[in-house]
Design goal:
three-stranded antiparallel β-sheet, about 10% strand, 12 strands, single chain, about 475 residues, Aspartate Aminotransferase, domain 1, alpha/beta, seven-stranded mixed β-sheet, 17 helices, Aspartate Aminotransferase, domain 2
Length: about 475
Amino acid sequence: MPRLADALAAPLIFEQGQAGRANRYFPRHAESADAYLPAEAIRPELPLPDNSELDVVRHFTRLSQRTFGIDTAFYPLGSCTMKYNPRINDAMANLPGLRDLHPFAPDELAQGALAIMWELERALSSLFGMAEFSLNPAAGAHAEFAALLIAKAYFRTRGETRRTTVIVPDTAHGTNPASAAMVGYKVVSLPSDKRGRVDPDELKKVLGSDTAVCMMTNPNTLGLFEDRIKEIADAVHDAGGLMYYDGANANALMGNSRPGDMGFDLMHLNLHKTFSIPHGGGGAGAGPVGVAAHLVPFLPSPRVERNGEEFSLQFELPESIGPMRSFWSNFAHVVRALAYICANGEEGLTKVSQLAVLNANYIRASIRDVLETPYDEPCRHEFVATAQPLKRETGVRALDIAKALLDRGYHAPTIYFPLLVPECLMIEPTETESKETLDGFIAALREIVQQAHDDPVAVQCAPIETVVGRVDETKAAREPDLRWRP
């Protein structure tokens, strides 16, 4: 990794270049802008640096080489599955007939695209035990929002508008209560039991005639399988409520168990987690929402329908919650996800989850003698460790461990979440990492813990080898200023 001193010595693009150095491929005509734009829309000058094309290319190439990405190193990022994006997916999404298709093309000229969308919906329904899926939502949290709108529409048609409460266990993902609040529901938090799971008896105490939805994921964010899920689902259904499955942890069970069989009525999936499409960076996402049979009429519009060998988009769906976004889905990601499913097949997808579970347990068992694992039992795809004892002994926190990992070439895991584990590190290796990579990560964690005992200040000063060193966390959160000033 580049050293901080090297990064600070490199000038910004605004500090480079000389007047007249920029490439001019076309002659400047003072009157050209006026011919196309009104005078009030034209800037008298644009304060851009005068750089040659080569200098610009080199500058941004250097910046790209400082970026940490899944193609360069390991992300053990619990709660947010970060795995390799197979290049075959990109090749399929870039086929000209798919890449260049206009979203307003008539159905008869878009049969291949509609078939792909229909095939992915059916594949997801089969894999996760739902009656139907919609590909319309733009991301996971967007699909949560859609699912709760579906629940609200369902209860409204039944005349049960008194159902205004959503139950969210403390092991749920952080977006769950936010999505419920956006729909107008009241959120009730449900504490976990000493096993890190939902206790059906405690759940029954908060169930009532006002219960609309219970939002869960299984396995939960502690990486533990909710082994009493049938009792939980039965209790919610007996109270007249719906069960919602957060699919963020679907990489743990794909091909091995299905939320629909557990009793869930609604769910979403993150295609950027389980199905290996590109992840993060503010780019486009994809969050299919799935439902049981009694909720199908409420799915977002339009829907892809098949009539014999012909496909069409259906917009006239009277009970639908309507479109969640412009156009019909993030189509390039739909192609990528279906390519991933087809490449792996049923057996391959099952093995994906099995290897993810194996890798997580391998790391958990290899570090539990140096970092406490509060739920010391076989986990699913991820597990939590706590640096609380280390903090008491040395002053080194989970944050310090995360920063020290950066110096050793590893991205930090999720820290301080879920909130019920103090000084929490949530670690998820995924199935795509080799044993050699896992061994290197394990050795790095053990080395950091040992350094915390020998020289805690060194750990607390990390990172020192990265482009940006330790920042003031409070100031960065409360006074972010990313502007450049000459």
